[in-house]
Records
---
Amino acid sequence: MHFSAGHRMQKKNRIILALDVTSRADALRVVEAAKDYVDAVKIGWPLILAVGPDIISEIAKNKDVICDMKIADIPNTNRLIVEQAMKRGASAVIAHGFTGDDSVKACVDAAKGQVFVLTEMSHPGARQFTAPVADKLAALAKSAGARGIVAPATRPERIAELRKIIGNLEIISPGVGAQGGKASDALKAGADYIIVGRAIYEAPDPKAAAKALADEVKRSI
Ligand code: O7E
């Protein structure tokens, strides 16, 4: 389904595939394998730099695409980046919030609200800079009119705390599998979707891996 104002990816499987592969053949193979078990595909720099941005529109023909540029610039540049992603068929974009309210609002305007703002990141180094200000970043996402936030499956207790700040905004949560987080823990803590990359695309059988995750999701909601 293509982007349109107010469009929302269908909340069915509650899994977003992080497609961090670096060839077109791998990208299409993994999407085909996982397509029945994921609600959207997240595409970021590894795949775009490897094969070019046309991959966004190609995958957007069949699946909602979240463009993960981790946008972090002045308002005008943010707007230009978001416009390019949307023109190629993205359903939503990912932006950093540390740039401040004007920069985040520029993304929100250009994406007609379809923006997820990073809060506390999922990796160990996140404790240095993003964790101490994560509550403020979540509050900014809400006040700027974003669709939701990104919160760490590696620290599910933080998902629950951030949920209190954002109310009914959506939470998408990376860190399941390769980074040690559990899908069921993230969902029980309040995540709307888990984001999963390596546990699917590096699995010997990506389809079976995606199905197993979808089964875990069903058991935990
Ligand atoms: O560990 P994996 O292989 O399951 O991949 C996780 C994906 O989520 C990967 O694309 C990485 O860039 C992203 N991610 C995190 O791992 N941690 C974060 O804190 C934030 C993200 C992210 O994607 O943010 C935007 C949704």
---
Amino acid sequence: MEETALRFFNTMTRKLEIFESQEVDHARLYTCGPTVYNYAHIGNLRTFLFEDVLRRTLQLFGYRVTQVMNLTDIDDKTILGASQAGVTLREFTDPFVEAFFEDMKTLRAQPAEHYPRATDFIPQMTELVQRLEAEGHAYRSEGSIYYSISTFPGYGKLSGVRPEANLAGARVDSEEYEKENARDFVLWKGARENEPSWDTPIGPGRPGWHLECSAMSMALLGDSFDIHTGGTDNIFPHHENEIAQSEGATGKIFARYWLHAEHLIVEGEKMAKSKGNFFTLRDLLDRGHDPLAIRYLLISVPYRQKLNFTFDGLHAADQAIERIANTLRRLQHSPPSDGDGDLGAEAVEAFGSEFRDALGDDLNTARALAALHTLLRQVNTALDGGGISAAVRDELDAAFAMADNVLDIFPPSASDAASDDEEIERLVAERCEARKTRDFKRADEIRDRLAELGVVVEDTPHGAVWHRKS
Ligand code: AMP
Ligand code: ZN
């Protein structure tokens, strides 16, 4: 059977294209990371999980992946935060860097190969500015250095925001200008009072926001690499400016495929603190939501569609996770049958090719999940009937392992979970809560789950205690 090709919608060409890496079997990927002035919100995390599914899909298609995700630890927001808190930039950003890694781990994101921090790459950034000056793309004004977009004919090719002749020489210093107007942008900001600054060969100051991604991607992935991603808000001006900086300096194509995730909205509206609909992962965990259900929900909608986050949707994701876990558990606990029951190897094979084709189709996670649920339904039907043979079980194990490598939404396996006291503590606490509210059905379900993990719970006058079965 012919293998399906991996296809991506490339923002640059506005077309679905077959992915071809520059190096054989090696995909190099740059993903714009968090600005570490606060906890990541679930919109940010949606984009980061799209990138997680992207890297795992590349692996599914046989690529080794080198992913770089930058940590923006110097920009207007981090500087303001540090100054309001009366601490250094590092002191201010360190805890948010740590929280970011924690959140990503909680959501089971595979770690990237590199997490460069902007402030660790000042020499590479100033060197890039020197190259741009030498190539005639940069000019100085009042102690700062700007990029002259009229010197780069390709400006606007990604976003379609072309420079207007009457705005020639118009400049912006601020980092996010959403006016959809092309402007000369700041590469290097001259030193100002109350702002961190570095003494460098191009003068004292600090980098503009866009510079770091050009300098760090080129340092860690080379002048040209395969895929560059971010949220749609990154297309203009951030990615447009990165292209101008990198291609202006090297004359080479910067990245060949540009993928952008649509935004997450909450209950149909843009997230805003003032609307009370702004959530970090921690907010949702504090309300008792399961990180696995959050992961499920965030990856379930294909990345080029807006994701409308609702609590109904989260509840449905919870149920989907539970359904998956139940079927896997049921399969594990039912002995192999002699015959194949209803489920033949063809069904498993059909799942495999549909799953792969769905992800190859510009990461269509909705289709991939639908295929998984179909297979699980077939497994249940077969178990209700004649059962499933040992041979088909082997096929199923391989199919589930493939699905899990990309989606990572299966419950921890008994052996993993048994070594994880935290998970047990959580279940024991949940069971206590269920008993308190006289939800004995739930309490018994949890006791059964704990038993599967090899854990015995005893209710004593001092509360529940647990131990592992010897
Ligand atoms: P930031 O921390 O603001 O630099 O953003 C980190 C990443 O999250 C970037 O790739 C943004 O494009 C993305 N992002 C920001 N807001 C949203 C949102 N509401 N939904 C999805 N992605 C977002
Ligand atoms: Zn970036």
